[in-house]
Automatic annotation (TrEMBL):
This is Short-chain dehydrogenase/reductase SDR. It comes from Deinococcus proteolyticus (strain ATCC 35074 / DSM 20540 / JCM 6276 / NBRC 101906 / NCIMB 13154 / VKM Ac-1939 / CCM 2703 / MRP). Residues 15-199 form the Ketoreductase domain. One of its GO terms (molecular function) is oxidoreductase activity. Pfam families: adh_short (PF00106). Belongs to the short-chain dehydrogenases/reductases (SDR) family.
Amino acid sequence: MTDQKAERNKVGAGKSAFVTGASKGIGYAVAQALAQAGYSVTITSRNEQEVTGAAEQIGQNVRGVVCDVRDAQALQGAVDGHVAAFGGLDVLFVNAGVGKFANVKDMSIEDWDTMLDTNLSGAFYTVKAALPALTESAKNGGGYIFLLSSLAGKNPFAGGAAYNASKFGMNGLSEVLMLDLREDDIKVTQFMPGSVATYFGGHTPSDADAWKIQPEDIAQLTVDLLELPRRTLPSRVEVRPSRPAKK
């Protein structure tokens, strides 16, 4: 009986979430935390083997779907499949992103396009695909969008032309979404983390990353915000390591 009561009290009981770029790193941690909170979850990735394996690791009521967020039509199909499988959509976590860094004179047009198309246009496509279902959820007290931006969205650095541009754009998009959708009772929060121990940009996490934000920290923030009263909206959350490594 106690276990049944705990299950009913889970914040995500009877609800569902869609997380992009979730085969590893922040997306994986968020999807895992949402599943543990009772949500049925769809995760996406461009790599079929990785996304299938991640879904199996997270467990029951988790779907792994191959999807490139640069493809608006594929995204719509993935969201429609989620709604068909779970009966609706309550939480969207826009996480998919890439990073390639080079001096402007050395950066290829292909790399520029890849980052802007993935990090910024992909975020817009994801939200557009999910909005009808989120609007329906909002009528019943649901409807929440999280977008993963970065402190690089307000702090430019050498070699970061495309990445900075995509994240500056993401910040603008997130703030406009918050203003556009609040009248529809859809909440929008952008996370702006600093250094996170992930596989981003070809990095492999190790013990040397212990000082960094961990993916599980962003996941915990997500679940905590979902438990806030509907009247309260932290629209921008900047997250930094408490004690950065000394240079």
